[in-house]
Design a protein that fits this description.
By secondary structure, this protein is mainly α. About 90% of the residues lie in helices and about 0% in strands. It is elongated and about 50 Å long. Keywords: Membrane, Transmembrane, Transmembrane helix.
Length: about 70
């Protein structure tokens, strides 16, 4: 009975454990990443306007790929 209970939310436990380990192991890189992204957003917002958020999202994806892999 306890196996069924623990097996019910294994995906939720896996995701929460993964996120906790990821954040703890990469906290310095995440802080640097957020500082870089906020600086880029501050510079692009007057120039590009609303499209700056979309551009920052694309930049974030590339930085995540190269920084955390």
């Amino acid at each position: 009975m306890s196996d069924k209970k623990s097996g019910k939310g294994w995906f939720k436990e896996f995701i929460s454990d993964f996120l906790i380990e990821f954040v703890i192991n990469n906290i310095i890189e995440i802080i640097i990443f957020l500082i870089i992204i906020s600086g880029i957003t501050y510079l692009l917002m007057p120039i590009v306007g609303g499209f700056a958020i979309l551009a920052i999202f694309v930049v974030m994806i590339f930085i995540f790929l190269f920084l955390f892999t």
